[in-house]
Specification:
homotetramer, mainly alpha, Arc Repressor Mutant, subunit A, Tetracycline Repressor, domain 2, about 70% helix, about 0% strand, DNA-binding
Chain lengths: ~210, ~210, ~210, ~210
DNA sequence: TATGAATGAGTATTCATTCAT
DNA sequence: GATGAATGAATACTCATTCAT
C-alpha cells in the first residue's frame, strides 16, 4: 500500500497532496492536529507514534516538528481544538434569556457535541500523566474553569427554581462524567448522530429515572 | 531512601518483607496485582514500568514474571479484581425482592464502589489499545455483559412502572459513564467517602434536574 | 526578544541589518564566518547548530549556504581566518635581522595573539574527526608546516647560540601546546590582555623555572 | 567482519568474551569505561555513538546502560579514571623531602603520564559544553583544584629559591597547557614513550630556551 | 523462588542539507 | 539573495521480556 493510498484509505484529505501544492501554513498545521486527534482516539496516545501520524498525512516525521513543538504539544493542541466548541456554548448560554436549566441545556449540548467530535477523546484524555508540569497545569486550569461554570449554572437554576435543590458539585461531576464517557464509545459512523445523543442525555439528566406523575 | 523505606513510605505492606517469610503464592500474587493497580492509577499504564511496580514491592523486575505472564496480563488481572464487586452487586440485586428501580439502585451502588476502589481506574481504562486481541475480546465481552444487565434492569423497571419510559441503551450509557468517570477524580483521601458519592449519584439519576411538584 | 534584538544584544553588527543595505558579498561572508567562530568557541562545534549561527546573524539557515558550502566548511574557514595572523608573524620574523631566539619570539607573539583571537578556538580544535578526508589533510598540512617552521627557528637559534641546545621537536610541541591551550581559557573580557599573556608566556619559555645566577 | 573479530581486531580483551563468563561487575564496568575512553579519543565525543562503544565490546547498546547512567556519565567516568594518577602524583610529592622544584617535577611527571594515558583525551576534553550543569561544575572544581595545587608548588619553589620568581598563575597555565596538549598528539604506538616525553618536557620547563652560561 | 545480566525493538527528537519560489 | 518547507539519517534512551544461575 503506498502512502497515497493509505491517505486515501483513511478517507481524509491532506493539504500536502491536493494537486496544486498548498502553501497555507495554518491549513497544514490544522491537518496535522486533526490527524493526531484521529490517531490518538483510535490507538491511544502512547500507542501512536509520530511516524503513524506522519504516514496518515503522507509526510515524513520531521515535517510534523515544523508545525508543532512536541508530541505532547500535539496532544495539547487537540485538547484546545476541542475546547473551542465548549467556549462557544458558554457564550451562547450567556447570551440566552432562558432560566438556569435552559442555559445549562445549551451548554450541555455544546459540551456533548465537542466530546463527540474527533477531538473529544483528546479533551477527555489529555492528562497530567502524559504532559509536563506546565501543560498539565494549563489543562487542569481549563477543565476546572469549565467545571466551575457548570456548577454556577446549576446553582443559578436552583436559585430561579428551574433546577431542583441539589449538590451542585456532585451533580456537575455526574453530568460531566456521563458526557465525557461519550468519547469512549461514540464513533461518527454510529447510527446515532451526536446531536441526538446530546438531546437524549439531556433528557435523562432533566427527568431522571423515576416516573413523574 | 532505600527500597524498604519506599515500600513503607507508600504505606502498603509487601508480603516479601513482613518479618515472617510468607510463602503463600496467592498472597504474593495479590500484592503484585494491587501494586500494579495503584501504580497504573497513579501514573497511567504506559507511564508505569515494571521496574516501578517491582520497586514498590521491594522486589526485582523478573520476580513479577513469576506471578504474572505479562504487563498486559497485569492490567487484565486488575480489571478482573475490580469486577468481583460488581458481580456481587448483581447477585444481591437478583436476590432482592424490590422493583426494578430498587434493584438497579443496588447494582449502581456496587458498581460505584468498585469504580472508586483501587482497581477502578484499571477497570475503566483497560482498553483494546493496550491489550492483544484475545484479552481485548474478553474484556469487551465482560463489559458488554454488564451493560446488557444494566439495560435489562432498566427495562424491568419501566415494565413494573418504577422507572420512567426511556431509551434503555442511552440511559445505561449515561449512568455507566457518570460512574466510570469517578475513577478519574476520586481518591481515597478525598473528603467524600465512596458510599456517599454512590448515594448522591443515584439520587441524581433517580430524580433528575427538574424539580418535581 | 526578537531576532533583531538578539543580534544587537550580542553586541555584534550584522551586515544584513545595518541601515543601508550592504550588498557586499565578501563582507557578509566574513560576518558569517565570524559568527560561526564565536558560536563554536562558545558552545563547541557539535553543540552549535546552523540555526544558532543564522539566528545570531538575524538570518535564516539556508542563507548560510549561499556563503559557505558546509558546516565543516565553516569550521575550515574559521581555521583559515585565524591562520592569517600566524602567517604574518612568520613574514615579520623572516624580515627581522635578529637572531633565532628573537625571531622565534616574534612568531610566538603572533601565534599567541592568533590563538587568543575569536578564531583561536577553531584553529586549535579544527580536527580530523569533524572534517572529511580532504579538509582534514589540508589542515594537517598547514599545522605541520607551522610546526616545521617553529622547529626550524629553534634550530637556527641553537645554531647561532641564542637558544640552548635542545630537542627541537619536543620543544616545539611544548611551546605550541602551551599557546594552543590559551584558546581554552582566555576570553576577551579577561583582565589580562592577549599581548600581555603572550609576553609572559614567552618570558617563561625563555627563562624556564630554574633561577639563573 | 563479525563482532568477535572486531573486538579482537581492536586488540583489547573484553570481559564478556573470555571463554568462561566473567561475572565481575566492576571488571565489566571498567571495560566499558576504557572502551569509551578509547573511542572518544579516536573519534571524539560527539562522533562516537553508544553503538560504537558497544560494538567495540561485543555487546549491545542497552548493556552499556546497565553499567553507566548516561553518555555524559561515560565521559565523566573517563575523566575521573584519568584523575587517579594525578592524585597519586600529588601524594607522592607531598611525601617527598625535596624542594619546591623537585616536588613540582614529581607532579608534572605524574600529570604527563596521566595525560598520555588512554584517559588523557577525556580528561582534557571533558568540557562544560557536553555535560549538564552539575557534572560540569564537578569537573571544573577538580580542574581548579589541580591548578591551585600546581600554583602552590610553584610558589613554594620561589619561596625556597628553587624556582625563579615568576607569575605563578601564568606559569601554571603554560605548563598545564603544554602537558594537556600531549593528549592531542601522543599515541601509545609512538616511538617516544610517555615517560620520556614527560622528562623532556620537564627539562624544557626547568631550563628554558635561553642558554645558561 | 528470586535475581543479575542482557537484549531486541521501538521512539522521540535533532539537524545538516536541499530546493522551489 | 533569501526563505519556507521538507526530509534522510542519525542517535540517545527506555523497557518488556528472557534466561542462566
Amino acid at each position: 500500500m503506498t502512502q497515497q493510498q493509505r491517505t486515501v484509505a483513511a478517507g481524509h484529505a491532506s493539504p500536502w497532496h491536493g494537486g496544486r501544492r498548498r502553501r497555507d501554513r495554518a491549513l497544514k498545521r490544522d491537518a496535522v492536529i486533526r490527524a493526531a486527534a484521529r490517531a490518538f482516539r483510535e490507538r491511544g496516545y502512547h500507542n501512536t507514534s509520530l511516524d503513524d501520524i506522519a504516514a496518515a498525512l503522507g509526510v515524513t516525521k520531521p515535517t510534523l516538528y515544523y508545525y508543532v513543538r512536541n508530541k505532547q504539544d500535539l496532544l495539547f493542541e487537540c485538547f484546545q481544538a476541542g475546547l473551542a466548541g465548549i467556549g462557544a456554548a458558554f457564550d451562547e448560554a450567556r447570551r440566552s434569556h432562558g432560566n438556569g436549566r435552559e442555559r445549562l441545556r445549551i451548554v450541555l449540548r455544546g459540551y456533548a457535541l465537542a466530546i463527540a467530535s474527533e477531538f473529544g477523546w483528546c479533551m477527555v484524555r489529555a492528562e497530567d500523566q502524559d504532559l509536563d508540569a506546565a501543560m498539565s497545569a494549563r489543562i487542569r486550569a481549563r477543565k476546572g474553569e469549565i467545571d466551575r461554570q457548570i456548577r454556577a449554572l446549576i446553582q443559578q437554576g436552583t436559585a430561579d427554581g428551574s433546577i431542583r435543590d441539589c449538590d451542585a458539585k456532585i451533580t456537575a461531576f455526574a453530568i460531566a462524567g456521563a458526557l465525557n464517557w461519550i468519547a469512549h464509545w461514540h464513533r461518527e459512523s454510529e447510527a446515532l448522530a451526536a446531536a441526538d445523543i446530546a438531546d437524549r442525555f439531556i433528557g435523562f439528566f432533566e427527568d431522571g429515572l423515576r416516573p413523574r406523575r
